[in-house]
Every structure is written in C-alpha cells, then in structure tokens.
Amino acid sequence: MAYVYSAPKLKMLAKSPAGLEEILAKELEDLGAEQIELLNRAVSFEGDKRLLYAANYRCRTALRILVPVTRFKIETEQDLYTSIKAIRWEDYLGTQNTIAINSTVTTSIFTHSHFVSLRAKDAIVDRFREKTGERPSVDIDDPDFRINLHIYKDEVDVSFDSSGASLHKRGYHVSNAEAPLNEVLAAGMILLSGWDGQSNFIDPMCGSGTLLIEAAMIAMNLPAGQY
C-alpha cells in the first residue's frame, strides 16, 4: 500500500491596505491557497507551511502574514490578562526564546495599544514564571516570536506574525523621499490598473521611483521579497 504524505493545513490571515483585498486574494489563489475569504483589510486562507513562506516572499499586496492562535471576548482589562495567561504558550515557545507584542486597538475598554501589549507580555511572562520559575525575554527589534493582538470592540484575536518587519519594506530604497509611496500600495495600484507588464510604463510624478521599481519587478517577475 502506498502512503501519500499530506502536510498539515494552517489557517492564515494576510493583512492588506483597504481596497486591495481582491488583488491579494488573487495572488494567494495563484500560490495555491485554499478556503480564501475576503475580509476588511485582510484575506483569510488555508495552506501548508510552504505556502506560508511563499506568501511572505511573493505577495506584492500583503503587509503581514499572520497565523491565528485563538479568539476570545473581553469586558474588562483583567479579562485580557486572564485570557492571554490561559493560552498554552509553552506549546509554542520556551523561556530561552524572545518575544515582541504588537497591538491594534479599536475599543472603549482600552485607550492605548502600548498598554495592551504590556498587559499581554505580563500575562505570558507570569504563566512561564509560575510553571518553570523562568521567563522569556522581550526583544522589540529581532524577536524569535512576534505576537500580534487585534482588539475590536470586545473581541480579541491573537496571532503569530510570520513576517517580522512589514512586507512593504522591500529593501530597495536606501533613503525615502519626503512623502514616500508605500510599496504595497504602489504594487496594488499597478495590478489594479491591468497593466500587462509588457507595454510602456510611464510615471510622470516619479518622486522616489516606487511605482517604476514595482512595475519593473512585476515585468521581470521578481518576487516582492527578492531584496
């Protein structure tokens, strides 16, 4: 009997600027994503770890690729701490690992995203201390695990951020112009225009050249993460 190995499927979430959800969904579909669903400034999808890496490397209109951990509701500040602490973080990381927490908050329960990140950090650290007597450290610049919290009204989404720095940072700009155009937005504008990648491309207001560079990368089929 022959056995066929099937890689486990992951639920993922690709963040995008408003208006680029359909373009991003098409990019993910071309990479082999399944169960694609358009959301507000995001696209949810499923795939294996290969797709996770491919989405980070190839998607031109994604800002971040998140891997959801859990979702829960809160009514008070203490609810956030208690629910974060209840997550089995030891299944994902160890005390030798470093973490960073980024939060986005749209709720009356909290008024500052930095406070949310600090409370979440406290909850994770306290769980490890109680279980092992040790704790993971915080490294804002280059953590082993970047944790993303998104709070909308009373609903909290906890995810791992697989991208690190925002994917709009392509790496080809040595310095930015006074009002630089976001690289993801530039790529999205080109893809929305229907440009075929073969005909002439003219940018009369070139600025820092972001549109021209993104167009050249599309024409040459260079992945967004090439640099």
Distance between the termini: 45 Å
Strand element count:
8
Report the β-strand fraction as a percent range: 15-25%
- Major sheet size, sense and barrel closure: 8 strands, mixed
Shape: elongated
The sequence of SSEs as H and E is: EHEEHEHEHEEEHH
Helix content: 25-40%
- Continuous helix count: 6
**Spatial ordering of strands, largest sheet:** 2-3-1-4-8-7-5-6
Average pLDDT for all residues:
92
Q: From the helix content, strand content and strand pairing, which structural class follows?
A: alpha+beta
Radius of gyration: 20 Å
- Unreliable runs, pLDDT <50, ≥5 residues? none
Describe the model.
The chain contains six helices and eight strands, in the order E-H-E-E-H-E-H-E-H-E-E-E-H-H. It is α+β, with helices and mostly antiparallel strands. Strands 2-3-1-4-8-7-5-6 form an eight-stranded mixed β-sheet. Helix 3 crosses helix 4 and helix 5 crosses helix 6. The longest helix has 20 residues. The model has no long low-confidence stretch (mean pLDDT 92).
Which key phrases capture this entry?
6 helices; 31% helix; alpha+beta
Walk me through the topology.
Blueprint: E1 10-15, H1 21-30, E2 34-39, E3 42-47, H2 49-58, E4 64-73, H3 77-86, E5 98-106, H4 113-132, E6 137-138, E7 145-152, E8 155-161, H5 183-193, H6 210-219
Parallel strand pairs: 5-6, 5-7
Antiparallel strand pairs: 1-3, 1-4, 2-3, 4-8, 7-8
Short description:
With 227 residues, the protein is an alpha+beta fold. The protein is built from six helices and eight strands.
